[in-house]
């Protein structure tokens, strides 16, 4: 079999302005969802290591449910399933942010748990010996050290969540992939358009990886 297909660089470049219209949605869903997920992750991560059983149990259930189900199923449930329970529609953008927030929050919970538990027991004892209360010891001694150790894993989770936004075209969110699908329907240049989409995602994730590398070089990650 012979293939005479040639990559049309001009078609790829021409698609870029249209694709860039979806970039703000991709970034908004990613960073808004991650910001909410970080807060959710801290809460459930600390509940996960609580000595109180009634705090640990709901944290374990939440973490296992959202880590054990695909993010695509989660966003479909939020967008199509929850309106049935709530009696009203949910905006596609809101559904996307919620899916990233709850999905990332489950993984961040485990990152928080691991980070806090990685701090040596002697650090807590040292804080208490200085006259700090247990909450003060956690806030001023344990948490700053744990956060530094969590940064690489949090960065990796950020990259995963950014890529997960590509799934949300199924609910009509106008992010990069959705913009690409609309453009392809009119131009039939699938190879060139998806190539440009891949480059845009690569630029975003590489930028985040570079920022993490700079933090490591400055000694802000431990």
Automatic annotation (TrEMBL):
Domain ABC transmembrane type-1: 23-212
Alphabetic keyword roster: Amino-acid transport, Cell membrane, Membrane, Transmembrane, Transmembrane helix, Transport
GO biological process: amino acid transport
PROSITE patterns noted in UniProt: ABC_TM1
Membrane topology per record: Multi-pass membrane protein
Signal peptide per UniProt: none
Keyword Aminoacyl-tRNA synthetase included in the entry's annotation: no
Segments passing through the bilayer: 25-47, 59-82, 88-108, 193-215
Family that this chain belongs to: Belongs to the binding-protein-dependent transport system permease family. HisMQ subfamily.
Protein name per UniProt: Putative glutamine transport system permease protein GlnP
Organism: Salinicola socius
Taxonomic lineage: Bacteria, Pseudomonadati, Pseudomonadota, Gammaproteobacteria, Oceanospirillales
């Amino acid at each position: 079999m012979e293939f005479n297909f040639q990559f049309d660089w001009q078609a790829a470049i021409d698609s870029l302005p249209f694709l860039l219209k979806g970039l703000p949605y991709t970034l908004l869903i990613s960073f808004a969802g991650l910001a909410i997920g970080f807060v959710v992750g801290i809460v459930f991560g600390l509940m996960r290591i609580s000595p109180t059983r009634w705090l640990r149990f709901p944290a374990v259930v939440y973490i296992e449910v959202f880590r054990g189900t695909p993010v695509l199923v989660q966003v479909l449930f939020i967008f199509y399933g929850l309106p049935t329970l709530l009696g009203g529609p949910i905006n596609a953008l809101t559904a996307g942010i919620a899916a990233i927030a709850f999905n990332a929050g489950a993984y961040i919970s485990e990152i928080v748990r691991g980070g806090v538990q990685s701090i040596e027991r002697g650090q807590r004892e040292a804080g208490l010996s200085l006259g700090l209360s247990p909450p003060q010891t956690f806030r001023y001694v344990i948490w700053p050290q744990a956060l530094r150790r969590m940064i690489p894993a949090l960065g990796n989770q950020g990259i995963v969540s950014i890529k997960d936004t590509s799934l949300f075209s199924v609910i009509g969110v106008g992010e990069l992939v959705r913009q690409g699908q609309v453009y392809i329907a009119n131009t039939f240049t699938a190879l060139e358009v998806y190539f440009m989409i891949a480059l845009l995602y690569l630029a975003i994730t590489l930028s985040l990886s570079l920022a993490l590398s700079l933090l490591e070089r400055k000694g802000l990650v431990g």
